[in-house]
Amino acid sequence: MTTEIILRDPRTGRSDGTVPVTSPQDLRMMATRLRSAQPAWEALGVDGRAAVLRRWKEACSERRDEITTALAADTGRWRESVQEFDAFVGTIERWSSLAPKLLNEPRRFTSTLGFIDIDKNLRPYTLAGIISPWNFPLVLSTIDMLPAVMAGTAVLLKPSEVTPRFAVALRDSLAGVPELESVFSIAIGEGTVGAQMIELVDLVCFTGSVPTGRQVGAMAAAQFIPAFLELGGKDPAIVLNGADVDHATTALLWGATSNAGQACQSIERIYVETSIHDEFVDLLAKKAARIGLCFPTYDTPGLGPIIAERQVPIIEAHLADALAKGAVVRAGSSAVEHHGGGSWVRVTVLSNVDHTMAIMREETFGPFLPVMAVADADEAVRLANDSSFGLSAAVFAATTEEAEAIARRLEAGAVSVNDSTLTALVWEGEKHSFKSSGLGGSRMGPASLFRFLRSQAILVKTTTAVRDPWWYPAELFEGL
Ligand code: NAD
User: Fold this and answer.
1) For ligand 1, is residue 131 a contact (CB within 6 Å)?
2) Is residue 126 helix, strand or coil?
3) How far is CA 422 from the centre of its chain?
4) Residues 438-453: pLDDT tens digits?
5) Over 90: is that where the pLDDT of 84 sits?
6) Mutation choice for ligand 1 from 74, 75, 135, CB with most ligand atoms inside 8 A
7) How far is the CA of 207 from the centre of ligand 1 (A)?
8) Which of 164, 339, 384, 468 has CA atoms 20 to 30 A from the CA of 49?
9) Alpha-carbon dihedral of residues 71, 211, 326, 313, nearest 10 degrees?
10) In this predicted structure, what is the pLDDT of residue 333?
């Protein structure tokens, strides 16, 4: 069994340290300790919990440099690490102000019968297990953790073994916030640690690939606990006649290549109506050529490296398959580039692609914009829906009304109209992942909080003067 993780610098490919792996015994002790602390955390009430979280926000802000530096060392990119940190701190603030409003709302009412009051009591799950991926390590480790602890649930987090440095820095930030430290622990390790964790918790939130998500779902079913699965995608964009090509190319360029395309909600395939196809590809390629690589230094503007070494052969295989089947590189890389020991891919625009190619059907997780010409909106919708994934999508058309009508026909949990990846900007849009892209309630919007709460109906008869309609006849008991 692995006892330490060897750290790898994605910019240089070099090993630059180790982090100890949490042993099975320590994991069990963590779970026991979290369980015993949870009742006091629940009893603190939502206002008390919000006050503790605000103190944690201060503690994290004081350690901004340390956490951001660790995150950048994990991922090889700086600008996105700063954005991630700011988004994380913003999310603490949002839940600290929103959860009290949601949970302090009156939930007692009189039933239609008139003589029974119903008090909807919300009881948190005791212990949630959270398993997260490497592409946005901090945001995706805390996106479920924050509503969970606000609901009163204790949390055991297992971040990706690819990016464990930030987790050590985050753990250090808890030192000055003992109430939170008692109900939030971080375990370090590979998938085996995640699998052990599932046996110790009452609910699991998993963000990662479809194959692992299926395994996690099966393990949760065997444990008879709820699983919230947020998995991969192959998000389509549709651009129809009359769309603003300049606007669409700029929006899609960002939507497909931010974080070097290592985002679940990345646009990974584009369908453009034939009459504007050539103009669209030409402009997209010209814009793509303006974006470089964030190499050799962090402050060189451009795309960061491929974070996880294991993603490189997948990207290489998709690109080679596309080129062998006739795809044309209009801008960017015809192969993964190796600089300074890291692996890098330029913003890459491909034309002449079709659905026989893996790059149009499987998740690539790189900065690719494969563009396919389509005869009309119906063909675009058919091809966009011809996928086992259903995470998100984007539509551009001559009018917003036309684009919205197309959006409603797409098999995807979130569809951006007149833009792409709007899910990253607006938190309020509740959504489900369609098809293999996930399972379980929405992690966006207020519904996110209620995933960690069970409704308990306290049914109070407010008068004894009324007989229940199904009781034994009163005459039966006469004379007693
Ligand atoms: P992954 O499935 O390889 O690993 C995710 C996590 O699961 C890691 O922490 C890993 O250690 C753990 N794990 C592995 N095997 C396990 C097992 N048997 N039991 C329990 N845990 C186990 O995914 P990844 O490569 O880290 O992340 C990339 C994937 O995540 C992509 O498919 C991407 O689309 C997806 N993703 C989805 C979302 C979303 O919100 N839908 C967000 C980001 C990333």
Assistant:
1) yes
2) coil
3) 13
4) 999 999 999 999 999 9
5) yes
6) 135
7) 5
8) 164
9) 50
10) 86
